[in-house]
Amino acid sequence: MSQTPQGICCPAPRPVPVEGPPAAGTGGRYTISEVAERTGLSAHTLRWYERIGLMPHINRSHTGQRRFSDRDLVWLDLVGKLRMTGMSVADMVRYAELVRAGDHTYPERRRLLAATREDVLRRIDELRGTLAVLDVKIAHYTGNEDTPAVSEEAATS
């Protein structure tokens, strides 16, 4: 689960299909509701991303409606993956600013992504330890004789 701008729990965004041609009839331009449906993000979240600078400038139709491009969908896919890493919104916005600033920011982008990668690896190690505890407990409750009995205290330490 992830947090919306208001802090309400919601499912993590779905991966955005970016392979192949644009959806029929879109010409590679999507309304906010189409993007919301494709990504699992709410229209409110998409507007918020734009307002805080996480999304690049979104083109508008002659009536002022947002028109997202295929490139925007690719960016949203990356943002979804960065969210899944646990990267803070502030760091995601900083990364977006660096991308917009140009190629000379590669070293800083690399440092930001490398630090996030290290955080992910630490969390994976923590989760592996948690998984091991669960495996011991499940084996205990299923009566698996191959697994030595472990006390509650030992399994949680």
UniProtKB/TrEMBL annotation:
It holds the Pfam family MerR_1. InterPro entries: DNA-bd_dom_put_sf, MerR-type_HTH_dom, MerR_fam. Signal peptide: none annotated. GO terms for molecular function: DNA binding; DNA-binding transcription factor activity. Residues 1-25 are annotated as: Disordered. The keyword DNA-binding applies. Keywords: DNA-binding. Gene3D superfamilies: 1.10.1660.10. Residues 29-98 form the HTH merR-type domain. This is MerR family transcriptional regulator. The lineage of its organism: Bacteria, Bacillati, Actinomycetota, Actinomycetes, Kitasatosporales.
